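RECORD TYPE: inverse folding
INPUT: structure tokens
STRUCTURE:
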């Protein structure tokens, strides 16, 4: 089962996704895409860790989510990927102007989904509802994340949108 959770920044997506997974039986993995590159991000990551407590295993993987998913296959009943928003940023900054490389990494993630027998919950921001960004990288980011979100929404068994902390099932 694949569940996709999307919505705006600070809309409650991560809390909702974590609650979904914690209602499931079995062993849980939090697959984190964020990197602690500055003090503010370190604090955010620490808050997330504290909230999960010792009920979760954590694997940090900023780029190769497919490889990380395969390493979890068979060991976990549920995997929470948090989040595609940061992952796409990592990909675009790590592989500037290498669309083919990014596509291969994304395709590898999608091929890994079927190898995980439990529930996969994926979190991502909806960034395409605002103005057109004024610079090329921001437009590329918005477009690529939008395409990634569409792809996972099509693949997902359930899709939820979070708006001001309220979940709406859309699929």
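DESIGNED SEQUENCE:
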């Amino acid at each position: 089962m694949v569940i996709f959770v999307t919505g705006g920044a600070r809309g409650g997506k991560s809390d909702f996704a974590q609650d979904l997974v914690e209602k499931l039986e079995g062993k849980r993995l939090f697959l984190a895409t964020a990197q602690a590159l500055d003090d503010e991000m370190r604090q955010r990551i620490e808050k997330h860790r504290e909230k999960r407590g010792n009920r979760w295993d954590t694997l940090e993987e900023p780029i190769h989510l497919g490889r990380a998913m395969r390493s979890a296959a068979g060991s976990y009943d549920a995997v929470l990927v948090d989040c595609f928003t940061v992952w796409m940023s990592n990909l675009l900054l790590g592989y500037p102007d290498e669309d083919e490389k990014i596509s291969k990494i994304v395709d590898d993630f999608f091929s890994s989904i079927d190898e995980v027998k439990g529930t996969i919950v994926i979190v991502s921001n909806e960034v395409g509802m605002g103005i057109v960004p004024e610079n090329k990288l921001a437009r590329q980011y918005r477009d690529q994340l939008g395409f990634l979100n569409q792809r996972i929404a099509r693949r997902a068994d359930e899709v939820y949108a979070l708006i001001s902390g309220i979940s709406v099932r859309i699929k």
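NOTES: The two ends are 13 Å apart (CA to CA).
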